[in-house]
Hints:
Elements: E1 7-12, E2 15-18, E3 37-46, E4 57-63, E5 68-73, E6 77-82, E7 88-93, E8 112-117, E9 131-138, E10 156-164, E11 179-186, E12 196-198, E13 212-216, E14 238-242, H1 254-257, E15 294-297, E16 302-307, E17 314-318, E18 324-329, E19 341-342, E20 345-349, E21 352-358, E22 369-372, E23 384-390, E24 401-406, E25 411-416, E26 429-435, E27 438-440, H2 442-452, E28 464-467, E29 473-476, E30 482-487
Amino acid sequence: MRMARVMALVLVAGVAVLAQSPTDPFPAPIPVNEGVIRVRFVEFASIPDVGGEPARMMLLVDEPGTRRLFVNDMRGPLYAVSYDGRTVAPYLDINAPQWGVAVQAAGRERGFQSFALHPQFGRPGTPGFGKLYTWTDTSNMTPPPDFRPGGGNRTHATVLLEWTARTPTSATYDGGPPRELLRLEQPFANHNGGHMSFNPLVAPGSADFGLLYVGVADGGSGGDPLNLAQNLGSPFGKVLRIDPLGGPHVVRTAASQHWPVGSQSDPTLNSTNRKYGIPASNPFAGKPGVLGEIYAYGVRNPQRFGWDQRNGNLFLADIGQNIVEELSLVSRGANLGWNKWEGSFGYISREAVDLTRRRADPTATYPVVEYGQLDPLLQGNSAITGVHVYRSGAIPQLMNLVLFGDFPSGEIFYVHADRLPNGGQDAIRRVLLNDGGESKTLLQVIREKNVKRGRPPASRADLRFGAGPDGRVFLLNKHDGTIRLLVPDGQATR
């Protein structure tokens, strides 16, 4: 549980002592009204309840090859949604008994975490045709893990699975059982998977095309007790980059290459378990004692990341411990600091950061923007989410903004994508939803929807962003099953 009080380290006569009064690293609060942007929205689609409970939506992905959106529920279902939002249909339930996946979806943090469709999913004759990847927690602990944390309670496993549809345009998945690529033994019940995505900005022939970025949290508990995030021999607390197909992005055949594509003898499947490829361009590839899969490290709970289509910047929203939430730029080989740093400040414990040490390590990558959990706009139990860089002109007031949010409170924030801050929260401003002329947070909108459906008002929002075709931005949450679409002024009805 997050702490309501924050303590700072002060130095007295060269001896470090903990201050005994609350200290906020960002005493100037986020402005309530200054710079507020108001955006209209519509209810775009509804995802079905599971067992009488609202859908626990985590991610919305556009698949242009088959002209559909895909949305997952943490309990296992994956839905296909038409571009107009009028058709929502089950596509694949990864928790169905015939697959043997056994999704572990207990609590808020476990379940079907993320998914990604290969950029060639809908392109016949390509290596990625029909390939879909899921990142999920599982209670099936029988198969040996590829990586163990070296401690903890062995609560469950997190697995990366590859599914292959025979006919990607089919209304439902028509392929066979998944191929397991990667398995992690989890030491604690919280901080599990994270976001997973292919770079949407690159084309075939690019060195980054077809490489899968996978966010892996630090293993959980609190404070990274196993010291995994800074350990370059461990996948925990990292952003990994792998080639799930295992090598050159060309169509290969057994006749031309003398080995079947994806076989155990495939020389491009150079991971230790021989199930995926490690790109030679990864920063630590080939270095002894270091995992070649690592693209960046020093993250705590990397819930979301996203690219700026104008300049290729990769932003990552990393949930803080008890004090600082951060949004950072990720580059090849970057150390984002955790657990040496929480945001811009030296990490001491779950209750304290060192306010006298700010951004003091030149080798670390510090946040472009961050905010404190004591901010009066929030609930005292904050968690950053996002991120979406809006470069479309459809909603002029959002043009050239980096959108992110705080999912318990339902607050949506922005900073300017072309004038990025250098840490702190001074540049943060709010985005409110224009609901029939009234300005509301997403949580307020959700609570009203709950009441209309005869349900108790939600206490939190669990905000997520989704990106659709033509620059469309969607809002997801786990408490009413409604996908909302941000729209220009004058288009607030469907």
